[in-house]
Every structure is written in structure tokens, then in C-alpha cells.
């Protein structure tokens, strides 16, 4: 690194995908416009291609160059920037392929009748039971929700006829203070 003309060297002691990289953070903070970040190889800077693109794009926004010795990549030159943009375009292309494959897989699963997403909170039998309980005068939405181990909003979701619409009122036992809504 000294032979490459580096004035200050930062070196993380830990490695691994999830290791905290304090020295990298210090190096990125140390850099000023016009500086160039030099690394021995790309894998010493970033854990993935997306990570690399993000770091180098941030450096460029800040007016900082980037140079990798092993790969002979130098974003301070037009050719280096071109190579880096090709890397970025390939990474974006791969991301879009993954998204497309995911959508195709989901569509195929739906076509096979696979149920996607979170399972229903209540079974049809529980919904019928909840409706029956709601006909009892002393039953409340809260007590029924507790009985089934769900929230009140879940009861309202599965028994939509309970939702007040327009000027209808929910029986709460408390008179509505708005005179225009009070029944005469």
C-alpha cells in the first residue's frame, strides 16, 4: 500500500460477512474530495457486488476516487469509470433477473393452487361461531376476540357486517354527544 502512494492505511482485523468493520468506517470518514481510496483487492472493500457499487457510488458523489490494485481498476480515469459502470450495469441486470424469476415462480405456485402469504387468522368454523356469539346480547367484539386469541380488528375483518358505515352507530352503551347523529 505504501508503494501505491498511500499516506494513511486502515486495516480491519476482523473478517466475515457480519463482522463490524470499524476501520472501513474510519477510512470512509477520513476521505475528502480529491482523495482516492486504494484497496489491495475488491474483496477487501466490499462483501458483495451490490455493496461495492454502493460504496464506490457514494465515494464518487463525494468527489473521492477509487482504486483497486489487484484488479487494476481506477475510477479516477475514464476507462476505470467505464469498467465500473459495466460492473454496475451487470449487477442491476442480475437483480432484475432475480425479480423476474421470483415473479414467475409466484405465478406458477398460484397456478398450482399453492396458497401464498400469511395463513388466515380464523377458520370458517371460527367465523361462524363468532357470528353466532355476536347475536347474544352480552357478547362484545372484545370478548369474542379474546376467546379466539385474535385482535378486535381481526373480528371486524372476518365479520365485515359489524363495521359501522355512514351514520350507523356501534352499540357502546354511551350516548353519542353529536346531536345530529342521535336517533329521535
UniProtKB/TrEMBL annotation:
Domain Resolvase/invertase-type recombinase catalytic: 1-113
Database matches in SMART domains: Resolvase (SM00857)
DNA-binding is among the record's keywords: yes
GO biological process, one term: DNA integration
Pfam families the UniProt entry points to: HTH_7, Resolvase
CDD domains in alphabetical order: HTH_Hin_like (cd00569), SR_ResInv (cd03768)
Record-linked PROSITE patterns: RECOMBINASES_2 (PS00398), RECOMBINASES_3 (PS51736)
Keyword Oxidoreductase: no
Matches recorded under InterPro entries: Homeodomain-like_sf (IPR009057), Recombinase_CS (IPR006118), Resolv_N (IPR006119), Resolvase-like_N_sf (IPR036162), Resolvase_HTH_dom (IPR006120), SSR_resolvase (IPR050639)
Gene Ontology molecular function, alphabetical: DNA binding; DNA strand exchange activity
Transmembrane stretches, start-end: none
Keywords: DNA integration, DNA recombination, DNA-binding
Family: Belongs to the site-specific recombinase resolvase family.
PANTHER family named among the record's database cross-references: DNA-INVERTASE FROM LAMBDOID PROPHAGE, SERINE RECOMBINASE PINE-RELATED
UniProt name for this protein: DNA invertase Pin-like site-specific DNA recombinase
Organism: Actinomadura citrea
Amino acid at each position: 500500500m505504501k508503494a501505491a502512494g498511500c499516506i494513511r492505511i486502515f486495516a480491519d482485523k476482523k473478517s466475515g460477512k457480519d463482522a463490524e468493520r470499524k476501520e472501513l468506517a474510519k477510512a470512509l470518514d477520513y476521505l475528502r474530495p480529491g482523495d482516492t481510496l486504494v484497496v489491495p483487492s475488491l474483496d477487501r472493500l466490499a462483501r458483495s457486488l451490490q455493496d461495492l457499487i454502493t460504496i464506490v457510488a457514494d465515494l464518487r458523489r463525494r468527489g473521492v476516487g477509487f482504486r483497486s490494485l489487484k484488479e487494476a481498476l481506477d475510477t479516477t480515469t475514464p476507462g476505470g469509470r467505464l469498467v465500473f459502470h459495466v460492473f454496475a450495469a451487470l449487477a442491476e441486470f442480475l437483480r432484475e433477473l432475480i425479480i423476474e424469476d421470483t415473479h414467475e415462480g409466484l405465478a406458477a405456485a398460484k397456478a398450482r393452487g399453492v396458497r401464498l402469504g400469511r395463513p388466515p387468522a380464523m377458520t370458517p368454523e371460527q367465523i361462524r361461531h363468532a357470528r353466532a356469539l355476536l347475536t347474544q346480547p352480552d357478547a362484545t367484539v372484545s370478548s369474542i376476540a379474546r376467546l379466539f386469541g385474535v385482535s378486535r380488528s381481526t373480528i371486524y375483518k372476518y365479520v365485515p357486517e359489524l363495521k359501522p358505515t355512514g351514520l350507523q352507530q356501534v352499540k357502546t352503551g354511551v350516548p353519542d354527544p353529536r346531536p345530529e347523529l342521535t336517533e329521535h
